[in-house]
Amino acid sequence: MPVPDLVPLGEAARLTGRTPQAIKEMAEAGEVFAVHVSGHYYFDPDRLPERPALPEELQGELPELMTAQEVAHLFRVHPKTVSSWARQGKLTYIRTLGGHRRYTADDVHHLLNQQHHTEEEGRS
User: Which residues in the chain belong to E strands, given as ranges?
Assistant: First the structure.
């Protein structure tokens, strides 16, 4: 009998669209087949649960997300300046599962246009 290729917890979470903690809890409850070796969980990708459907408000086209580096390049500023704008509320953001900020392209372009108009008014 062939041995299935097992994937680690993080990869199982990515494949199912769930958090690693949720997959681990499912494994501990016996809802998902997992092998626990030396403190690590491994999963058979063919036996993982289906990805849950996106909420209705997220179905369709998702916003393009940008990193602080990409936003900084557009504004010709340091990425730390972009983070400062986010803390000040000038630029909205979301957090990734890893805790990094991501900025929607629409919000970035709105701020860019707003800044451009402010600079033009200052020259008049």
Answer: 7-8, 34-37, 40-43, 65-66, 94-95, 101-104
Structure tokens of 24?
Answer: 């681990």
* pLDDT of 120 above 80: no
What pLDDT is recorded for position 80? 95
Same domain for 118 and 67, yes or no, is yes
Residue 34: other Cβ atoms inside 10 A: 22
Give me the DSSP letters along 44-57.
-GGGSPPPPPPPGG
Whether 103 and 73 have beta carbons less than 8 Å apart is answered as no
Report how far apart, in Å, the C-alpha atoms of 83 and of each of 39, 71, 103 are. Answer: 37, 10, 10
Q: What CATH number is associated with residue 73?
A: 1.10.1660.10
d(CA 67, CA 73) in angstroms, rounded, equals: 10
Note the pLDDT tens digit of each residue in 66-115.
Answer: 999 999 988 889 999 999 999 998 898 898 888 899 999 888 888 888 87
